[in-house]
C-alpha cells in the first residue's frame, strides 16, 4: 500500500469517527437514582439534556437527600453515555483500542 492510499484510508476513517460522534449527540440514555425517583437524561456525548424528579420527594426537609439523588442520577447517566460512546466506537474499530477514541 502506498502513502497516498494510506492517507485516503486515514481520511475515510476520520470521517467515519466524525459521523459516529455526531450520531451520539442524537442518542440518549437515562441515569436513575432512588429507585427511579430521579432520572437524568443524557445524550451520547454525556451532556445532561433532561432531569425528572418525582414530586413526592420534593420536600424542604429532604433537600440534602434530593441533592444526593440528583448527583447520583447524573453520574449514572454519564456512565451510561460513556459506555454508549465506547460501544459505538468499538463497532467502528472492530474492538481495536485506539488512544484518544476509547
Describe the structure in your own words.
There is one protein chain. This protein has 102 residues and is of the alpha+beta class. The chain has a domain at 29-93: Nucleoid-associated protein YbaB-like domain (Ybab, Chain: A, 2-Layer Sandwich), CATH 3.30.1310. Helices cover 54% and strands 18% of the residues. The protein has 2 helices and 3 strands, in the order αβββα. It has helices spanning 3-26, 63-93; strands at 28-33, 38-43, 48-53. Strands 1-2-3 form a 3-stranded antiparallel β-sheet. Helix 1 (3-26) packs antiparallel against helix 2 (63-93). It is rod-shaped and about 70 Å long.
> Which CATH architecture of the domain at 29-93?
2-Layer Sandwich
Helix fraction, binned, reads 40-55%
SS summary, helix count = 2
**What's the CATH first level of the domain at 29-93?**
Alpha Beta
CATH topology of the domain at 29-93: Ybab, Chain: A
CATH superfamily grouping of the domain at 29-93: Nucleoid-associated protein YbaB-like domain
Rounded average pLDDT: 88
Placed side by side, the strands forming the largest sheet appear as 1-2-3
Low-confidence stretches at least 5 residues in length (pLDDT < 50)?
A: none
The radius of gyration is 19 Å
The major β-sheet equals: 3 strands, antiparallel
